[in-house]
Amino acid sequence: MPVGLFRVCLLVITAIVNHPLFFPKENGTIPENTEEIIQKMKEREESLRLEQLRLEQEIADQEATQKALEKAAVVVEESKEEKVRWDMWTALSMVIFLLIELWRQDFQEGNWQDIGGEEDDMAVLGKAFKGVALPDKAVLASFYEKRILGTTGDMARMREMVEGFADDLLEALRSVCNRDADMEVEDCMGVGSMYENWRVRKPFVCDLIVPFAPPEPYCFRCQTWCSGDSFPPDEQGYGTIKVCMADEDVTGCICDKTKLGEDMLCLLHSQVNSTRPSSEMEDLLCFKNTQYLDADQVMKWFQIAVTKAWNRISHKYEFDLSFSLLDSPGALKIKFKSGKSIAFNLTPVVQYENSDVYFISHFPRSSLAADAPSSTHWFLTFAVYERRFIQLVSKTLPANACHISCLQILSFLHGKQCSLTGPSGLTNYHLKTVLLHLLQACPSQDWAPEKLEARLQDMLKFLEKCLHEKKLYHFFIGNGKIPAELGFPIIFQRAEPLNLFRPFVLRRDIYRKMVDTFHEMLRNMSALINEYTVHIPLAHTNGIRKE
């Protein structure tokens, strides 16, 4: 009975416990929610895995980019180091080059004229003299006496006659010119070989320069290539001449460089003074629409003025006067009724400041200067100082010194060679420049008359050296050893040396012709001298050699 009652109670309790009202219905769905959660967890796990893969890929890409950047930085750094090394070597090379160039220029400046004491270098450079024997002293003396002195005896009379006529012609020119509008012509001066007593070849031609100045109230403002402003290499040796009012500031007012407004006026210059009519400047022989003197217009004006002057005085003379050369506007020729003639050059020039350096429009019968860059560029001539230097040095040399004789012989031989093989770029001015350098370099006693042969060899060897190096420096420009007695302008002494052979550097055909002519002259020297030398007895020759 108790056991049965116990079972009934257990059954009732079990039924009560399992009754649905005691537990929520959701409890019955637990198995379904679990599967859903598991499914979501799997999806979440998959998305996390994909995200992880993406992040890993991004990290890998970033690492690759970082490595690439690091590699690029290394390359850039290496290139920078290489560039620094290269720049260092380049800079070092440039410094070495500049030091060498400065040393070379200093060496040239200190030694370009010290030729007399370097006989060993002369011997090495004188390669063209191998197998070439100069005539002995007796033959040279006979050649000079019979051929040179015999043909130059009447030069003094010719100079006197030409100078007297030129003075009369210029006086007549002044009378036909308008003093208020035309250029003012000064007295002429003789320059060149005829007045330095070394011209040997006929026809003898006197070179006269005629300085001129503008009428009042104008003046000339001269500017050279070495005055401070940069000039191209082909304009070295040239300058320009500006026609200005006498009271005009040299540097010029800003109103000339700046366009002022219509309602603005320069307080220093009135509108009338600041703007000059074009016709007025052309009347002053300036290039069109500029204030710069035109060399072509100057020569046209000078030719017209000379023609008018001759028409005024022609009745006084029993000869005719004419312009002899079309390419040399100042070349004049006097024709006598007997058929004889005398040629001379009358060339207008402009004085550089208060010196005896002159701007010259052209060089008659000479290839001394290349064609001017324009008609407003004037070449500078130092002919007056060259003449004075020769006269000054001649006073310190022994009696009957051989310096002029050397130049005359060399000029004669060069002229004869050119008549055989045609003209070359080498001119008598180049030969005179060689002599000027040697006159400054050699002691006075070396120019004794008995040393004619040695000095002639020195001139030929020095010229050969210059031809080989394509460098023959102007004697005055860049030469700091000019005697103070000459009063030579310091601006040209401080300038860079001017190479007279520079035009031949690019013109190889002319340079080749010049060198060939020189070497041919060396080979023909003995034959040319013997051809014009009177026969000398052997005993007389031996007697001179013993002395």
Automatic annotation (TrEMBL):
Domain of life: Eukaryota
Domain Mab-21-like HhH/H2TH-like: 403-478
InterPro entries hit by this protein: ITPRIP-like (IPR026250), Mab-21_HhH/H2TH-like (IPR046906), MAB21L/cGLR (IPR024810)
Coiled coil regions in record: 38-72
Presence of keyword Disulfide bond: no
Extent of the signal sequence: 1-20
Short name of one Pfam family: Mab-21_C
Entry's Gene Ontology cellular component terms: nuclear outer membrane; plasma membrane
Protein name: Inositol 1,4,5-trisphosphate receptor-interacting protein
Gene giving rise to this polypeptide: Itprip
A GO molecular-function annotation: protein kinase inhibitor activity
UniProt-annotated location(s): Cell membrane; Nucleus outer membrane
Family membership: Belongs to the ITPRIP family.
Organism: Cardinalis cardinalis (Northern cardinal)
Keyword field: Cell membrane, Coiled coil, Glycoprotein, Membrane, Nucleus, Signal, Transmembrane, Transmembrane helix
Function comment: Enhances Ca(2+)-mediated inhibition of inositol 1,4,5-triphosphate receptor (ITPR) Ca(2+) release.
Major subcellular location class: membrane
Membrane topology: Single-pass type I membrane protein
Taxonomy of the source species: Eukaryota, Metazoa, Chordata, Craniata, Vertebrata
Transmembrane listed as a keyword: yes
Gene3D superfamilies: 1.10.1410.40, 3.30.460.90
